[in-house]
Specification:
Elements: E1 7-11, H1 15-26, E2 30-34, E3 46-49, E4 52-55, H2 64-72, E5 84-86, E6 91-95, E7 110-112, E8 117-121, H3 125-135, H4 139-162, H5 175-181, H6 190-195, H7 201-208, H8 227-235, E9 238-240, H9 243-258, E10 261-263, E11 270-272, E12 279-281, E13 285-286, E14 290-293, H10 297-304, H11 314-319, E15 325-334, E16 343-347, H12 352-360, E17 370-373, E18 387-396, H13 404-422, E19 430-436, H14 438-445, E20 477-479, H15 490-507
Parallel strand pairs: 1-2, 1-14, 2-10, 6-16, 14-20
Antiparallel strand pairs: 3-4, 5-9, 6-8, 7-8, 11-12, 12-13, 15-18, 15-19, 16-17, 17-18
Helix pairs in contact: 1-9, 1-15, 3-4, 4-8
Length: 512
């Protein structure tokens, strides 16, 4: 279909694509979103079956200020589209064993067992400080100091380094940048940074678990990302009405109001042309002036563009460090799950071995760290009466062999591990089940090596070291989403869409 002058096709409807589309439509551009799958949202799609509804991808609603700022840019607020509820506890952690000193005595949020501890992280910071103090003398005060640093990193980092795109090295040689960077934790790894505050391995894990959302490990993620602890402890963990899929619905409704046209079941096969004369081949043919790709960057370059129009070689993409894939089990079960919280983490004391099997020597972890999400604890609409809805997510290395026999064996290992370490035996209560893992990510989302998230936030893949929003070889072609700055995670992809739209507006300002 031939589109009007000053038209833009956005390929992919993940959070980066939906965000970019809204900002571009708000400038008056004629925006069409072209989505491969049958529903919008990219990795934030839904699975609905037999009365159960699952968020298939992201399930944590963090950084509420980013969503408020996004909707505020259009004169709206999140509450115009969905309500949110702050969770209590924010999340629960089961530690698999008792390495390190045991809690010194009864403390809020801790249940000590012979084989491991259960810890609830509360919205009440004073209560959480008592929890930390029970594990390590002085840890409560250390937590307060850590969060002060985390809040500084968040406030300065978000305003000057996340919402501001700096795609070239010379952009960082600005005196204002140097002034704002003073005092931030720009050097070193998260492991080194956390060890400067806490000795107890369990407390270190509590401060580092958010790295899962960034697709990194403690020893390869920059210390700047301690800002995530401000997100966790101070801003809180919320649940949006309808789950993360409800947020997608809100953004799509906003896009409708802005005049965006959505096209689903349209897998793009090729991108040809330059600014003012593109041809985007899908089930239909689109002829826009400009193109924004929210499809995975590597897929766009290697599969949709001819070799001479690629900004990076195949060798470049093969050499990158990718965020983990995920082994997911979606389960509908009979009865309640009293032992689990809405968000539950199950962690081995030595999770370095788990990260090693994701990043260093890829193989299926035999003592996995994993996450359990039980939205039916908060939302009555996600499961039939008398039933619970949950999924288990194990971070695993991208590119592993996941033949059916391997999937079934690993499924049994995970369900056994859940029973042994949380006291919840699901195996005789399952009424609905579906597995989703590495090859499924590659097939459904065209993700490189089946990564669930994109490029990891390693020391050499952060900020200017990530691929740019502008194509290096094709005028009028832009990129958004988790491969670009600011990076991985729903809030970061929202901001990525804004940065991409700003780049488009800078390069092709509309007349009048």
């Amino acid at each position: 279909m031939e589109l009007p002058e000053q038209s833009v096709v956005v390929i992919g409807s993940g959070f980066g694509g939906l965000s970019a589309a809204c900002y571009l439509a708000d400038t008056g551009a004629d925006v069409h979103v072209v989505e491969k799958n049958g529903s919008l949202g990219g990795r934030a799609s839904r699975l609905e079956a037999e009365g159960f509804r699952f968020d298939m991808g992201p399930s944590w609603y963090l950084m509420p200020d980013v969503f408020e700022r996004f909707f505020g840019d259009f004169g709206r607020s999140p509450e115009d589209y969905y309500a949110t509820e702050r969770l209590d506890p924010h999340y629960r952690i089961f530690f698999k064993d008792n390495e390190g000193p045991r809690p010194s005595g009864p403390a809020p949020g801790i249940e000590a067992h012979e084989d491991g501890d259960r810890v609830d992280i509360s919205p009440d910071l004073e209560r959480t400080k008592e929890t930390f103090e029970a594990y390590e003398e002085g840890a409560g005060e250390a937590l307060e100091r850590y969060l002060e640093k985390s809040e500084l990193n968040y406030e300065v980092g978000m305003e000057h380094f996340v919402y501001e795109d700096r795609p070239r090295f010379r952009d960082w040689a600005d005196p204002e940048v140097m002034r704002n960077a003073r005092g931030l934790s720009l050097l070193g790894s998260m492991q080194d940074h956390v060890e400067g505050y806490f000795d107890h391995p369990k407390l270190q894990q509590v401060m580092q678990y958010t790295l899962v959302f960034l697709g990194g490990a403690p020893n390869n993620t920059p210390a700047l990302y301690n800002l995530m602890s401000h997100v966790d402890f101070n801003l809180g963990v919320h649940y949006p009405e309808g789950g993360v899929g409800g947020v997608v619905d809100g953004m799509v409704e906003l896009g409708d109001e802005l005049g965006i046209t959505y096209h689903t079941d349209q897998p793009v096969e090729a991108i040809e042309g330059r600014a003012g004369g593109f041809k985007v081949e899908a089930r239909d043919t689109f002829l826009p002036d400009l193109v924004v790709s929210d499809a995975d960057y590597a897929h766009t370059e290697l599969d949709l563009l001819p070799p001479e129009k690629r900004g990076y070689s195949e060798e470049y993409w093969e050499s990158r460090t990718y965020a983990p894939s995920a082994f997911l089990i979606y389960l509908g079960v009979e009865g309640d799950l009293e032992e689990l919280a809405h968000h539950t983490l199950v962690l081995p004391s030595d999770w370095e071995e788990h990260f090693a099997k994701v990043f260093d020597e890829p193989e299926w972890p035999d003592d996995p760290a994993y996450y359990l999400c039980v939205p039916s604890k908060t939302d009555d609409d996600v499961a039939p009466e008398g039933h619970s809805n949950l999924f288990a997510l194990v971070p695993v290395a991208p590119g592993l062999d996941d033949r059916p026999v391997i999937r079934e064996s690993y499924r049994d290992l995970v369900l056994r591990d859940i029973a042994e370490n949380t006291g919840v035996d699901l195996r005789d209560r399952i009424v609905f089940e579906e597995l989703f893992t590495i090859d499924d990510f590659a097939e459904r989302y065209n993700s490189m090596k089946g990564t669930a998230l994109g490029l990891a936030h390693t020391l050499d893949q952060t900020a200017v070291f990530r691929p740019p929003h502008r194509s290096k070889e094709v005028d009028g072609l832009y990129f958004t989403g988790s491969y670009t700055t600011p990076g991985i995670g729903v809030p970061m992809c929202l901001i990525s869409g804004q940065l991409t739209a700003e780049a488009v507006a800078e390069d092709y300002p509309r007349q009048g």
